[in-house]
């Protein structure tokens, strides 16, 4: 992509306003916290102290809108503590420009490295830099600095108290994450009806897993409804894929395929009903037509072989999903008004319907749900330190971002102080707020920040010029602006920037700043800060495009481990370890997500491909997606522990295990891939047993994927490795 096209794309992205779900009650609660803090401090103390406290209340509420699974009160308190420390240290060094510059550079460097811990940590650290730059311009003494820091902590306490006293949809994020995962499974089932090899985006499942990680305190208070369906959703995906696949499931055409389509539609309806139940805490409502389809699948008159086993497994998992909601289940009225026939007594379908219509069983009531452990805030410190140590290298995008943002903040502070405009902190603050570890976000946020600031300071300055409001009216207008920002922040960064700019104008109006000077300074210095941020990334980039081969190699290695874990279960069923298969699946899923994120960032960079073309990138992605899907199909049909070992599967796994490290290195180093060992092992396997069995048919799909990967990455005119079908 050329620079001109990249800049056009970033401008368009930065100025895009999206339609999204608004949360007015949460926005009102956050704005109320800001209003309480500003009002009380303005009443009891000085306007200057009110301005300082307002930034603490604003940032403490802002973090609660981020996508984090930690309790909101804990986030508000943690942010307030960080803001208080940065403010106090800034006041201590503010008297000496050199000392403050050193403090700013060091603090900003660590704030940039905080992105290694996670996006929420990076955003919070960025806020501490911004508050340090703003509040230290308000004159005070050492005792006053302690008072400012204490007021900021109190602002965080107020926001945390409001969250506790006025909870709005408790566990709402966790409910949404789990419901989204089940809804994604329902959508997948519907797409499989028409496309048996449809792609599944595992991001909802990854989000649900992250949401299921709990601290010990959360585990004691979590609603029981959130404990079981996630595991069911994880097990459903391979079953749905294996049922629809024409190689290991039902034939591509015929009565069995029609019956599978009906069964997939019924499964999608059940999953949607369970998702709605979890999202809103309401009973599960199931139409009788769904029960009729499931009863037909249980009778087995249409399906045979692996397809029948997948159908029975699907029915059992659907019953588990409904049972795990822990909500009463209601039968929706039939579409034609007729009552469906009752299932036969003693059948699997009859027990299924009993589970669907009566709720939980006694065995599940006695069995506590396990939870994934999330470290508490104190125990998160060593985790964060390990993340910082891992990214503290020159080749790391986050490490380069930290160096870049520290240098830009220092340069912005020097230029802002040298210019005869006043409020010079706006230049480095803008740079810090817009800079992110990747090119696309930095440039789009820079454009959005400038345009939003231009609109915000114009509106705020116009109100100040026409109305000449007093301190209390300015405080009320600031609260209105911040309430709008909380409400509209997910619609786009330009909208949020406009609200924040007007908020700052009214806050400075509380302290008696002149509006005309504020508007002029803010626009010029915001433009300067944005240009510094963009120039820094252009001069000292961390492009993702040259790293695509490394990301592809990581994905190949993870898919290989997943395939080997499944093949080992077929080779030695008595020794199979479900935990190993599960961990390999999670690694493969994470590697796939890392690849998708890298490709999305690379597509926005003004860099030509280095080592892999766009066409090869798409072909390799399709091949590795097929490889991962094949391992998932085999996982859906893992043999029982008392099944006979498979010497052929063991030989094939050994050949793949031997070839995999060299293939991963070949992808990184742009060499030809050699899959001759696995291809010969598969040929021997097929010669011994033919095409009978799920494992050998899935192995054919696997070697096809390996052959395709070798072809799209080949530099020679011959393309593919043809050793397999000699």
Distance between the termini: 42 Å
Major sheet summary line: 2 strands, parallel
User: What portion of residues belong to β-strands?
Assistant: under 5%
Shape: globular
How many alpha or pi helices? 29
Tally of strands: 4
Whole-angstrom Rg = 29 Å
Percent in helix: over 70%
Helix/strand/pairing category:
mainly alpha
Low-confidence stretches: 337-369, 716-726
| Mean pLDDT rating | 83
Strand order, main sheet: write it out: 1-4
Count of the domains: 3
Structural overview:
- This protein has 726 residues and is mainly alpha-helical.
- The protein has three domains: 3-169 and 379-387 and 397-539, no CATH class; 172-221 and 223-370, no CATH class; 545-712, Methane Monooxygenase Hydroxylase, Chain G, domain 1 (Up-down Bundle), CATH 1.20.58.
- 71% of the residues lie in helices and 1% in strands.
- The protein has 29 helices and four strands.
- It has helices at 3-14, 24-44, 47-62, 72-94, 97-113, 119-135, 142-165, 172-194, 203-211, 216-221, 229-244, 255-280, 288-299, 305-324, 348-358, 362-366, 380-391, 397-418, 426-434, 439-467, 471-488, 493-510, 515-539, 548-571, 578-602, 614-635, 647-669, 676-689, 694-712; strands at 213-214, 284-286, 329-331, 372-373.
- The strands form two sheets. A two-stranded parallel ribbon has the order 1-4. A two-stranded parallel sheet has the order 2-3.
- Helix 24 (548-571) packs parallel to helix 26.
- The longest helix has 29 residues, at 439-467.
- The protein is globular and about 85 Å long.
- The two termini are 42 Å apart.
């Amino acid at each position: 992509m050329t620079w001109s096209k990249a800049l056009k794309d970033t401008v368009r992205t930065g100025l895009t306003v999206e339609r999204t779900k608004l949360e007015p009650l949460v926005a009102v609660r956050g704005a109320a916290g800001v209003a309480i803090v500003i009002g009380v401090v303005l009443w009891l103390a000085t306007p200057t102290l009110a301005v300082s406290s307002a930034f603490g209340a604003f940032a403490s509420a802002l973090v609660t809108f981020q996508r984090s699974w930690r309790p909101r009160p804990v986030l508000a308190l943690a942010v307030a503590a960080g803001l208080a420390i940065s403010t106090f240290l800034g006041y201590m060094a503010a008297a000496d420009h050199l000392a403050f510059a050193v403090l700013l550079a060091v603090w900003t460097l660590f704030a940039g490295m905080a992105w290694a811990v996670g996006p929420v940590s990076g955003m919070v650290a960025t806020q501490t830099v911004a508050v340090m730059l703003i509040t230290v311009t308000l004159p005070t003494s050492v005792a006053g600095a302690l008072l400012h820091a204490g007021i900021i902590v109190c602002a965080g306490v107020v926001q945390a108290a409001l969250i506790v006293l006025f909870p709005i949809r408790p566990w709402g994020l966790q409910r949404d994450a789990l419901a989204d995962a089940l809804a994604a499974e329902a959508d997948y089932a519907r797409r499989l009806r028409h496309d048996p090899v449809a792609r599944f985006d595992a991001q909802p499942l990854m989000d649900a897993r992250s949401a299921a990680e709990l601290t010990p305190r959360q585990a004691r208070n979590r609603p029981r409804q959130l404990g079981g369906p996630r595991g069911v959703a994880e097990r459903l995906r391979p079953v749905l894929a294996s049922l629809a696949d024409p190689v290991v499931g039902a034939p591509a055409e015929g009565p069995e395929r029609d019956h599978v389509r009906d069964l997939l539609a019924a499964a999608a309806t059940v999953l949607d009903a369970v998702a709605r139940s979890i999202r809103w805490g309401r009973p599960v409502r199931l139409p009788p037509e769904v029960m009729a389809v499931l009863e037909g699948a249980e009778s087995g008159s249409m399906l045979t072989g692996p397809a029948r086993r997948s159908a029975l497994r699907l029915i059992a998992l659907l019953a588990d999903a409904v049972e795990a909601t822990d909500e009463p289940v209601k039968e929706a009225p039939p579409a034609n008004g007729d009552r469906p026939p009752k299932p036969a007594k003693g059948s699997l379908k009859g027990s299924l319907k009993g589970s669907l219509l009566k709720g939980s069983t006694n065995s599940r009531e006695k069995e506590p749900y396990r939870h994934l452990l999330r470290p508490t805030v104190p125990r998160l410190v060593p985790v964060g330190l390990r993340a910082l140590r891992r990214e503290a290298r020159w080749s790391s995008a986050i490490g380069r971002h930290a160096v870049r943002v520290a240098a830009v903040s220092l340069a912005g502070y020097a230029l802002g102080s040298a210019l005869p405009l006043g409020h010079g902190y706006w230049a480095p603050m803008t740079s810090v707020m817009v800079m992110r570890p990747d090119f696309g976000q930095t440039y789009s946020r820079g454009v959005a920040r400038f345009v939003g600031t231009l609109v915000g300071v114009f509106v705020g300055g116009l109100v100040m010029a026409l109305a000449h409001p007093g301190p209390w009216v300015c405080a009320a207008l600031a609260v209105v602006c911040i309430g709008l920002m909380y409400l509209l922040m997910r619609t786009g960064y330009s909208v949020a920037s406009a609200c924040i700019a007007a908020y700052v104008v009214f806050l400075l109006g509380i302290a008696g700043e002149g509006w005309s000077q504020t508007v002029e300074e803010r626009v010029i210095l915001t433009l300067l800060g944005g240009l510094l941020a963009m120039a820094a990334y252009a001069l000292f980039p961390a492009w993702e495009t040259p790293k695509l081969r490394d990301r592809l190699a990581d994905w190949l290695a993870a898919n290989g481990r997943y395939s080997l874990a499944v093949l080992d279960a077929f080779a030695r069923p008595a020794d199979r370890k479900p935990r190993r298969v599960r961990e390999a699946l999670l690694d493969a899923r994470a590697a796939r997500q890392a690849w998708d994120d890298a490709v999305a960032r690379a597509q926005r960079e003004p860099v030509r491909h280095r080592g892999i073309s766009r066409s090869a990138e798409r072909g390799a992605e399709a091949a590795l997606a097929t490889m991962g899907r094949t391992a998932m199909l085999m996982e859906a049909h893992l043999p029982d522990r008392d099944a006979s070992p498979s010497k052929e599967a063991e030989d094939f796994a050994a050949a793949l295990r031997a070839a995999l490290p060299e293939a991963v290195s070949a992808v990184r180093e742009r060499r030809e891939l050699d899959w001759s060992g696995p291809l010969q092992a598969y040929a021997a396997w097929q010669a011994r047993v033919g095409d009978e069995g799920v494992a050998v048919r899935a192995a054919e799909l696997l070697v096809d994927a390996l052959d395709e990967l070798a072809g799209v990455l080949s530099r020679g005119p011959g393309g593919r490795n043809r050793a397999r079908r000699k």
